[in-house]
Amino acid sequence: MKKNKRVTLWGEYISIKDFLLSLLISLSILLIVILMPALNKDLKLILGLSAVVIGFIINTIWIKPKRNVKVVKGERK
């Protein structure tokens, strides 16, 4: 059985493999946009910020955090 190591990051349990994959996705999208030689300086800021947002959206859709949910029965008031 394959053991998947999980770490706690900001209260969420994630695997190191998923974390590194999401960093690679975000950085590659950002570097592609920033290193485009045909862009002037004003467009680089706007496109760089939009590349970060696109990377964030891709990562939230593709990589899900693994939450530990504990259901506790309590009294109803």
Key structural traits:
single chain, 77 residues, mainly alpha, two-stranded antiparallel ribbon
Reconstruct the topology from this structure.
Elements: E1 6-9, E2 12-15, H1 16-34, H2 41-62
Antiparallel strand pairs: 1-2
Helix pairs in contact: 1-2
What does this protein structure show overall?
The structure is a single chain. The protein has helices at 16-34, 41-62; strands at 6-9, 12-15. Strands 1-2 form a two-stranded antiparallel ribbon. With 77 residues, it is mainly alpha-helical. The chain is 53% helix and 10% strand. It has one domain.
- Report the span from N to C terminus: 45 Å
How much of the sequence is in beta strands? 5-15%
- Helix-strand makeup class: mainly alpha
Q: Extract low-pLDDT stretches.
A: none
- Output the strand order for the largest sheet: 1-2
Tally of helical segments: 2
Radius of gyration: 19 Å
- Number of structural domains: 1
Order of helices and strands: EEHH
**Major sheet characteristics:** 2 strands, antiparallel
Helix amount, in percent? Answer: 40-55%
Shape: elongated
Summarize the structure.
With 77 residues, the protein is mainly alpha-helical. It is built from two helices and two strands. The protein has a two-stranded antiparallel sheet.
